[in-house]
Specification:
six-stranded antiparallel β-barrel, Thrombin, subunit H, mainly beta, 4 helices, globular
């Protein structure tokens, strides 16, 4: 009988611990491409179960001083249920953010992302 990777590595499954915290979340992924010399945004809605909260002050210390004053989010989502990479742009609650870090805890069945409020020219 085949065992899952987390059982083979003796890593705990965090699904049960996070189940009470996770709620349905909808974000929009913004992909920018250049078409005929013009920057064009493509938007894709992403739905997942997770938690979004402000990034802890201790975690902010790992980022440059000039970026610490911006709004930061910490996103936890179950499994690899979210299609995002570092430097991707997202919309959440009417604000645009840039994914700065992805911590892959897939052995524990979740991932953590750090996102900073992105500069949007007027």
């Amino acid at each position: 009988m085949a065992r899952s990777l987390n059982q083979q590595s003796n890593m705990p499954q965090m699904s049960a611990a996070f189940a009470g915290w996770f709620s349905p979340i909808t974000i929009v992924k913004i992909t920018q491409t250049i078409i005929n010399g013009f920057n064009t945004d493509t938007r894709k809605t992403i739905k997942f179960n997770g938690i979004i909260q402000p990034l802890k002050p201790t975690d902010l210390k790992q980022y440059p001083d000039g970026q610490r004053d911006w709004s930061w989010l910490q996103i936890h989502c179950q499994g690899r249920s979210i299609d995002l990479a570092t430097n991707d742009k997202i919309l959440y609650n009417g604000q645009q953010y840039k994914i700065m870090r992805i911590n892959d805890y897939s052995l524990n069945n979740y991932i953590e992302l750090h996102a900073v409020q992105d500069f949007v020219p007027s």
